[in-house]
Automatic annotation (TrEMBL):
Protein name: LacI family transcriptional regulator
Lineage: Bacteria, Pseudomonadati, Bacteroidota, Chitinophagia, Chitinophagales
InterPro entries on file: HTH_LacI, LacI/GalR-like_sensor, Lambda_DNA-bd_dom_sf, Peripla_BP_I
UniProt xrefs under PANTHER family: HTH-TYPE TRANSCRIPTIONAL REGULATOR GALS (PTHR30146:SF109), LACI-RELATED TRANSCRIPTIONAL REPRESSOR (PTHR30146)
HTH lacI-type domain location: 6-60
Cell inner membrane recorded as keyword: no
Length: 340
């Protein structure tokens, strides 16, 4: 038997009322008596009636749904950001449609087309590692579609942006390694096309420059898919291990790069930190349970999701075009543990 949701007409027939009376009672209209409202609401609850979101969207010219596009939901950073997004959206009466790109530009374009076709009211996006052409986002933005970037932002589109202080996070991590006495510090980052990669490499370079150390080009490795594929990280680590002198520490500039780098080092029999120290960006709740526990730069992902959602809803609900946009930069925190 095909499921059919309860309707206002069903309530009207069951209670012997007109559909207009039921509709006004559900809207708490002053035209309907308290007794009738109570009768309608009790019956609606009993049959699990919910307003039809499609009908509501046609009436309000709004779907009360927002889209979210991230690289990977399983990534601890993005899962925490999504929790922050949903916490605000739920309170404000919005549904959230979530999709992941798996670091594919083509998937990002297809996903955006799909979400836009579902008449979402706005979009929160952290672009994929393969996103260099922004035509798909510019086309929507130029038509007045509300978009807010978080974490991985693009400068070419003028809208709200929410990120962490990537420069400072990388600077603090690298300076920590320097202060611990490490001399040959390598870095593995995502692709140069990503804003977070460029900013974190800049922080790494600045920390070294303050100690009069100029990083050799061979010590800086980029990952096309930001560590999503283990083979990429294996290749980068193998190249670093062939250097002379060999790095005595590695800084990894994203969540997946950090955990996969640790996996590769262990598979090669490299002891952490006795042979090579490891510090990276990670929001995993399991870092204390690893052996050794990881020193990490942690990002306020949940807060980032909340702030980005509030800014998006401001765009959606504004009665006039928004001309001034905010750039929110949140602080990171360095959690020092045994890996360094």
């Amino acid at each position: 038997m095909k499921f059919e949701a309860a309707t206002i007409k069903d309530i009207a027939i069951a209670l012997g009322l007109s559909t207009s009376t039921v509709s006004r009672a559900l809207r708490d209209s002053h035209e309907i008596s308290i007794a009738t409202k109570q009768l309608v609401l009790e019956y609606a609850t009993r049959i699990n009636y919910h307003p039809n979101p499609i009908a509501l969207s046609l009436k309000e010219k709004r779907s009360r749904s927002i889209g979210v596009i991230v690289a990977e939901i399983a990534n601890s950073f993005f899962s925490q950001a999504i929790n922050g997004i949903e916490s605000v959206a739920k309170d404000k009466g919005y549904n959230v449609m979530i999709s992941q790109t798996h670091e594919s530009f083509d998937k990002e374009v297809m996903t955006l087309q799909y979400l836009a076709s579902r008449s979402i009211d706005g979009l929160l996006i952290s672009v994929s590692s393969g996103t260099e052409n922004l035509d798909h986002l510019k086309a929507l933005h130029e038509r007045g579609f509300p978009i807010v970037f978080f974490d991985r932002i693009v400068e070419e589109i003028q809208t709200h942006k929410v990120m962490v202080d990537n420069f400072r996070g990388a600077y603090d991590a690298t300076l920590h390694l320097i202060n611990k006495g490490y001399k040959h510090i390598a870095v593995i980052a995502g692709p140069e096309s990503l804003s977070i990669s460029r900013e974190r490499i800049a922080g790494y370079r600045e920390a070294l420059a303050q100690t009069k150390v100029k990083p050799g080009k061979a010590l800086i490795k980029y990952s096309r898919y930001a560590g999503l594929h283990l083979q990429e990280v294996e290749q980068a680590v193998s190249q670093l291990l062939k250097l002379r002198p060999r790095p005595d520490a590695i800084f990894t500039a994203s969540d997946k790069l950090t955990t996969n780098c640790m996996r590769v080092l262990k598979s090669k029999g490299i002891r952490i930190p006795q042979d090579i120290a490891l510090v990276g960006f990670s929001n995993s709740d399991l870092i204390e349970l690893l052996h050794p526990p990881l020193t990490v730069v942690r990002q306020p992902a949940f807060e980032m999701g909340q702030i980005a959602t509030n800014l998006l809803l401001q765009l959606i609900e504004s009665k006039k075009p928004v001309k001034e946009f905010e750039r929110k930069i949140l602080n990171t925190s360095l959690i020092v543990q045994a890996s360094s």
